[in-house]
């Protein structure tokens, strides 16, 4: 197995370093369905992603994550990679159907045993486990009962959270309820691009609320059972949103997308209310009678931290004379009630996903949270980029574009901290290449390259570079691309 080189002795004139605060937590992140494989082992139940990925036409390259990175069997080797990298923390998710095959009832102890072993291995290597309870793999049995548009799913999620805490709460301090509920609701139930592949804007709006209700119920359950030092948070995918021009239609488009991408989650969690303009927009689409008295009090259960997943900026406008009816081509939208909005990009470089590279948007997002919402420690819980990787004849993977992306976004974090933002850590996405949801295995985000034929792991240049950042607790300036 390739490992990371020891730090070289410093010689000559020292290079200035953008240093991070003492105790700043450097980590990397993954998700259960994307890496674990072993989907039929030890009584694991089916998830919506198992069903979706086996549905013809759902995944771009026709693959499934039945094996993925085989992390279920190779986790010890993967933890050694993390240790070689110097990670202080590892953010992973628990597969709900591995713990509760049907999403309800007693825990499957064989499934919990895997996470017990993984957590013990992390702790043995001095790596802090950051556990995410839900990264999109709803048990299929719960989807068959109505899924996230149904209120009961939120209650089932709280039961599951308590089962996991009872198993590993003595060894895990940092708990994240949900990862990116926007994707679960609006890609899963609105556009149908993600599992379960439903295409109904009204269902997506209901799902968004019940996901956040599930978050609040789970957070309350975790607090009730909390061990000393327990910290509870949620992770949201947030975006800087800009109008493409000075036209009033573009400004309204930016307001709408900011509302549906950011404020529809931030405001209930951190303020205990939905934004009035978002409510007005959505009531033109559907009655909001699924919101019950007391829900917002539950959703706004106090938190220890907020996780921020940041990848890009949205630049938007609206067609002249367009209304908010569904797009003319009839394509389902992830933006219910705002189908007329057009995403135009910023005209600069993009990643292999086609996403604008905009590190200034990360600083902007962090500053906004610090300025506009109640004070709360922040963590960048995902940030990274997909680019095509080429394995050299010698087995090396040089990825300077990914290094540049990481450099610029970590520098953006440093600027935010300098401006007073209480940013406490940064988790690179992703530790290793993996099953990239509807794209299958065609997109690679990893610090570590995975050969899906033989499961060999090869650290990329970006992994060696990131190991240096961790050792120094900072960035060398000016930008230094190559590994040290």
From TrEMBL:
One Pfam family matching this protein: Glyco_hydro_1
Gene Ontology cellular component annotations, sorted alphabetically: cytosol
GO molecular function, one term: beta-glucosidase activity
Catalyzed reaction equations: Hydrolysis of terminal, non-reducing beta-D-glucosyl residues with release of beta-D-glucose
GO biological process, one term: cellulose catabolic process
Alphabetical keyword list: Carbohydrate metabolism, Cellulose degradation, Glycosidase, Hydrolase, Polysaccharide degradation
Gene3D superfamilies (UniProt xref): Glycosidases
EC number, UniProt record: 3.2.1.21
Active-site residues annotated for this sequence: 180, 382
InterPro entries documented for this protein: GH, GH_1_N_CS, Glyco_hydro_1, Glyco_hydro_1_beta-glucosidase
List of residues binding substrate: 34, 135, 179, 311, 429, 436-437
Keyword Nucleus tagged: no
Family membership noted in the UniProt record: Belongs to the glycosyl hydrolase 1 family.
Entry-linked NCBIfam families: BGL (TIGR03356)
Protein name in the entry: Beta-glucosidase
Lineage: Bacteria, Bacillati, Actinomycetota, Actinomycetes, Jiangellales
